[in-house]
């Protein structure tokens, strides 16, 4: 339901009552800080410098100790009166909060008291005719020219009401900005929280992508791969059970049988590249040993892990080794490769080396740039040393706790 537009003459007063109540509540809360500032000057004035200084320091200490309580009261005031939510600061006590309660709060509360006084005075002046007509007739008649003076007072009162409405809103906005800067989290805390949120969101995306890869692997393994296997078996049975087929038909069946087996092999390679079942079931050691056995050159594998890292980290480590070995086979002209996976504190270290010709770089079309991005997705670091003539060493550091 749309909110009706106020009458143009009453538009300046929209929200003024709420802002005024907000300022009145702030003046009550800041009374303690005003008392702290005023008490040292009540007994003998500023001539008693030492006693004033001691009293002032004691008052500041009390104000500092009460700062967390005052902060909670102010935050509740902003939430209930203006609907403004001030995020909680990272620390229960800070000089930023004390400065608000000691400087900004009392100044704004004093301004709020002046605005409240203006509201009352303006309301009395704007209704002066009512006050006059409440007097006895003989008293009104005894005051010559009272109607002209009352007209001036009424006009001044109306102007004061409009000014009070504007000042209430302006002072409430100033108080809101000061509170957000002083009572809420600092800029550094906001950035830290934002980094934490982004890190959590990225971890969620990585986990979701890893789960999606596993789902695709299961679907391919249980669906398409099984259908292709069934097709290859049926074609093989057709070759065996129907020996009297024409040569053209047999040739077609042979070709289809070979294509089906090649498709099965390619699909198996694709599934292993997505997320091999052995990685999920038995961990990195078994999965990397399987990669080494399928490689067309000798590959040494050493995995030293006291415990399994997070699934997303395991998947990235497996992907790194798989892609690095694929690059060795395609481009390195190596006779041997070695894979070392170790844990050092909170870091999972993956090193893939070969004795090939070297010269690998990110712009050479070997997939190294994509490999570095995959590592960076989990806050890891990627580096490669590949001088011309070899050897090539790929080093990846992955955080064990994502």
Walkthrough of the structure:
This protein is an alpha+beta fold and 402 residues long. The chain contains 14 helices and five strands. The chain has helices spanning 16-29, 31-38, 49-65, 67-82, 95-126, 128-133, 137-142, 146-182, 187-241, 247-274, 277-282, 284-294, 311-332, 368-376, and strands at 299-304, 337-344, 347-354, 381-385, 392-399. Strands 1-2-3-5-4 form a five-stranded mixed β-sheet, with helices on one face. It is elongated. The chain starts with 15 loop residues before the first helix and ends with a strand. The mean pLDDT is 77.
Share in helix:
55-70%
Question: Which shape, going by the Cα principal axes?
Answer: elongated
Give the radius of gyration.
Answer: 40 Å
- What is the CA–CA distance across the termini? 47 Å
- Report strand order across the widest sheet: 1-2-3-5-4
Strand percent estimate: 5-15%
| Secondary-structure element pattern, one letter each | HHHHHHHHHHHHEHEEHEE
Q: Which parts are unreliable, with pLDDT below 50 for 5 consecutive residues or more?
A: none
Main sheet specs: 5 strands, mixed
Structural class: alpha+beta
Helical run tally: 14
Mean pLDDT rating = 77
How many strand units?
A: 5
């Amino acid at each position: 339901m749309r909110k009706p537009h106020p009458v143009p003459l009453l538009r300046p007063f929209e929200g003024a009552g709420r802002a005024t109540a907000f300022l009145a509540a702030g003046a009550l809360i800041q009374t303690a800080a005003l008392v702290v500032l005023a008490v040292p000057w009540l007994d003998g004035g500023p001539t008693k410098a030492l006693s004033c200084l001691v009293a002032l320091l004691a008052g500041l200490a009390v104000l500092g100790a009460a700062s967390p309580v005052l902060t909670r009261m102010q935050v509740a005031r902003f939430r209930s009166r203006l609907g403004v939510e001030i995020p909680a600061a990272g620390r229960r006590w800070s000089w930023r909060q004390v400065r608000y309660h000691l400087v900004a709060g009392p100044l704004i509360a004093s301004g709020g008291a002046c605005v409240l006084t203006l509201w009352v005075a303006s309301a009395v002046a704007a209704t002066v005719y009512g006050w006059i007509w409440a007097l006895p007739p003989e008293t009104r008649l005894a005051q010559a020219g009272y109607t002209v003076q009352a007209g001036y007072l009424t006009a001044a009162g109306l102007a004061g009401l409009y000014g009070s409405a504007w000042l209430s809103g302006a002072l409430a906005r100033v108080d809101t900005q000061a509170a957000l800067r002083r009572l809420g989290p600092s800029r550094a805390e906001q950035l830290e929280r934002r980094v934490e949120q982004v890190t959590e969101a990225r971890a969620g995306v990585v986990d979701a992508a890893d789960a999606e890869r596993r789902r695709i692997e299961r679907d391919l393994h249980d669906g398409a791969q099984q259908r292709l296997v069934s097709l290859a078996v049926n074609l093989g049975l057709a070759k065996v059970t129907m020996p009297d087929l024409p040569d053209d038909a047999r040739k077609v069946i042979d070709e289809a049988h070979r294509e089906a087996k090649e498709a099965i092999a390619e699909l198996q390679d694709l599934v292993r590249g997505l997320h091999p079942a052995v990685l999920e079931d038995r961990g990195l050691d078994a999965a990397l040993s399987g990669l080494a056995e399928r490689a067309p050159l000798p590959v040494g594998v050493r995995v030293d892990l006291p415990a399994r890292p997070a699934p997303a980290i395991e998947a990235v480590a497996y992907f790194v080794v798989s892609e690095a070995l694929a690059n060795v086979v395609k481009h390195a002209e190596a006779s041997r490769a070695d894979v070392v996976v170790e844990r050092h504190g909170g870091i999972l270290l993956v090193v893939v080396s070969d004795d090939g010709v070297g010269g690998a770089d990110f712009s050479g079309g070997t997939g190294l740039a994509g490999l570095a991005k995959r590592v960076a997705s989990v806050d890891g670091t990627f580096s490669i040393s590949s001088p011309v003539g070899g050897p090539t060493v790929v080093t990846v550091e992955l955080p064990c706790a994502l």
